[in-house]
Amino acid sequence: MRRTRVGRMGPVGLAWRILAMAAGLAVLTAAQIGHTDDLFPFSAMAMFAQPRDPDGVVDDTCLEGTREGSDEVLPISFPDAGIARSDVEGNLRGIREDPQRLAPLARAVDAHHPDEPQLTSLTVCSDRYHLRSGAPDGPPEHVTLVTWEAR
Fold first, then answer.
1. Nearest to 146 by CA among 127, 128, 121
2. Distance between CA atoms of 91 and 98, rounded to whole angstroms?
3. What angle do CA 135, 138, 139 make, to 5 degrees?
4. In whole angstroms, what is the distance from residue 144 CA to residue 17 CA?
5. How far apart, in whole angstroms, are the C-alpha atoms of residue 18 and residue 11?
């Protein structure tokens, strides 16, 4: 039986491994502090599943809008707005502070539907499910979180 000789790691190999580990930890730390998923998969851990109280509340974020010439509220898909739901949820604090941040999403929706009248408003909303023993307890409560209106 042939034995493979195992040697010690040289200083260059050791330095390379330490540098790679430090860089990975720096990116993970920056994502945690900045609450961003821009460096996915090195994302804020809050972006991933979290335990929920079986008698708590679960929010399902949604978009809806109105078009020129109509007061009818229309559901809007996140792909039509050119954004992932998690990106809206992750930036909700900034969107609430400045609803104009929704304007590019409204333009994206209009670009996806060029034959439709333009959006006059875009709302980030939530269907809030109250849980009992881990299951929905009644219909969801529809909540408006922030609204952008065209100028």
1. 121
2. 11
3. 110
4. 49
5. 10
The answer to whether the beta carbons of residues 37 and 89 sit under 8 Å apart is no
96 phi and psi angles, rounded to 5 deg: -65, -35
In DSSP terms, 128 is beta-bridged to 59, 141
CA distances from residue 22 to 9, 17, 28, 41, 138 in whole angstroms, order as listed: 18, 9, 10, 16, 49
State the pLDDT at residue 48.
Answer: 56
- Show pLDDT as tens, one digit a residue, over the chain (151 residues): 677 777 788 889 889 999 999 988 887 777 767 666 665 666 665 555 567 788 999 899 999 999 999 999 999 999 999 998 988 998 999 999 999 999 999 999 999 999 999 999 999 999 999 999 988 899 999 999 999 998 8
CA distances to 23, 59, 91, 129, 134 from 54, rounded to whole Å, are: 38, 13, 26, 11, 4
| Residues comprising the chain, all counted | 151
pTM equals 0.68
- Burial class (CB within 10 angstroms; exposed 0-12, middle 13-18, buried 19+) of 112: middle
